Amino acid sequence: MSSVSLNEKIPNNVDLAADRRLRRALEQWQPGFLAWWREMGPDGFQANDVYLRTATSVDASGWAHFDFVRMPDYRWGIFLADPDPERRIGFGDHVGEPVWTEVPGEHRNALRRLIVTQGDTEPASVEQQRRLGHSCPSLYDLRNLFQVNVEEGRHLWAMVYLLHTYFGRDGREEAEALLQRRSGSEDRPRILQAFNEPIDDWLSFMMFTTFTDRDGKFQLLALAESSFDALSRTCRFMLTEEAHHMFVGQSGVARIVQRTAELVRQGKDPRAEGAIPFDMLQRYLNFWYAVSLDLFGSEVSTNAASYFGGGLKGRPKEERFADHVLFDGTTPVELLEEGRLVERQVAPRLAVNLEVRSAYVEDCQAALDKWNRLVADLGVEFRLPSQRFRRSVGTFAAGCFDPEGRQIAEEEFRRRAPEWLPSEVDDAHVHGLMAKPVTEPGKFANWIAPPARGVNAQPVEFEYVRLNEG
Ligand SMILES: [Fe+2]
Ligand SMILES: [Fe+2]
After folding, report:
1. What is the largest CA-CA distance in the chain?
2. Is 308 helix (H, G, I), strand (E, B) or coil?
3. How far is the centre of ligand 1, averaged over its atoms, from the C-alpha of 233 (Å)?
4. What percent of the chain has pLDDT over 90?
5. Of the given ranges (24-33, 62-71, 214-223), which has the lowest mean pLDDT?
6. Distance 410 CA to ligand 1 centre (A)
């Protein structure tokens, strides 16, 4: 295993000590990062001790170390999965050749764009979530929020390391710009739209970590296939952290479902009891699923085709497929052309986005299946809306569709939107429930069930965030 240097200013397993120029460049970027964290990181909790896990090595058994730490003192480090000296390019025009240890000139711009786009989502999500602490349903949940936040900060470090190491001056400028853009800002927004949507209630946060962090998982899986080995190794380690973010979302929604179901079984009205009714949950699900589908890009994409052909970005778990070149045959793609749905046959490389998205949809359905098992006795079933529903990117953005995927007039869509998407009434209800934070150890807000177990074998009533000092 590559050795880990924890005592340095920037913990790392990339032997930063041996590369003075790079170390200096990153040490110069660090104060800007910390200033960004203080300005845009979790609002109001910077001085509190939080029970956090920190990456201290990359081997599966022992990479996470748990302790109390103030967030600005978190040890954001640079960790890459160990190199595999035998690794070969797994797809595209160069399949079978050795992977790249440097960035080939012809792919420099495209790789930089992929890394910047991924990197931009990391600080963006921290910005989106920065006020949530004030309405937390428990110390357990508050700690989970902060864990996700510091790890997104570390993911930013991971991408900035690549920019500084492999992209020279352009890379340094991009690393600066990652600290300048702001989620939701008019003049310098974050790159992708889902990361400009505000997240100021915990239901949205848990839907976001279920659906949007899951998009993150599939993007990282696709980049983990990259011929650019440093990118692949970076993403492979990020995936270990991403799994926890999806756990926070999926188990969080499950606990909301569980609480609502409890009330329904007692013959009570969840809305009147200060919980979240099933139909409201479905509307938040519809919204966050649809904006997350947009992150996969257009169904037919020449960019995706050239990323695939060039070996820059593959399909998640490329080894599952028989054909790694995608030269022969055609792939059927549904498109909206002049207002009509048609099926077209396209060159398979052009449909790579759709292939990645299909794997994502399957994974989302698995999450819903778990929620549905909790309410099977009540005859309730959560459903993924049609992939045509409420899209802003890709072929379906040009039309209006209901959640079943039926094409409808714009007027009908607008009139029925409150049935399908979070309305102002929903928003007011959800915010009303969360007006007061619950911060007594072991206590939980009325709208969510306690988790089955605590963090790292600690009890559920453990004081995960110490609010009384600082
Ligand atoms: Fe991330
Ligand atoms: Fe994440």
Report:
1. 67
2. helix
3. 15
4. 91
5. 62-71
6. 35
